[in-house]
Design a protein that fits this description.
Elements (H helix, E strand, L loop, with lengths): L2 H6 L3 H11 L6 H31 L16 E2 L5 H12 L7 H10 L1 E3 L19 E2 L2 H13 L6 E5 L2 H4 L8 E4 L9 E3 L5 E2 H10 L12 H10 L7
Antiparallel strand pairs: 1-2, 2-3, 4-5, 5-6, 6-7
Amino acid sequence: MTLTDRYKKGECKTVYAEILKLEEKAYQPEYYADIIDVLRETFRRVAHNLELIHAELALRGYNFCKETDYDFQNPICKPAQETEKLIEKLDKTVRSVGAVPESIKMFYQIVGSCNFAWDYDTDDEIPWEGADPIQLFPLNDMLDELIEMAENEEPIEYLQLSADYLHKDNISGGPAYGIEITPGPSIDGLFLNEEHNTTFINYLRIAFEHGGFSRGQEITVPDFKDYLCTILPKLLPI
């Protein structure tokens, strides 16, 4: 049975644990195509879950950004037509310091971007403070910042993907969350500056286990618990 078959049968965490143990062997022909299929299935599920979460939160009057002038403001933004060219440019931009994990490339190819942060500019009464809603910047915005850093000869240490949970609550916080630039080719990488100290894919798993809020375990108010009871049974495991 392939890794993809096992993943679809429910062995999600076990399959990824085995993939990470392979390290550089993951790129050998007997593994690589199967692993890429696992990634495709994973991020199809990520896209599916984000759509469901967005719809449920919208029904509950969650204050997403509505006046969107830029892609990063949109709750969900599908992949751009030029995604493959942008990924090539991303690889080239970071080549001198390392490699971009396959997981974030697949996120941009299949999902695009998301921003489930409460729009505190139009309503500063944030109902679930500290919950840390999922937010992952569009590829073009992240890449523009990297290119500017490279042109200014600033060190590129990681790919910045999200504000931290304090900034999302309109409080001065720490550095942006992001995925590491690995020394060599990698299937997944660490999701940095986020308290769970885990990989990007496992960070997404944790966020979905709490309805799209990676610190949802901190929220005990009844309406959040009611939301979880509604949304969690609908989400696909990753």
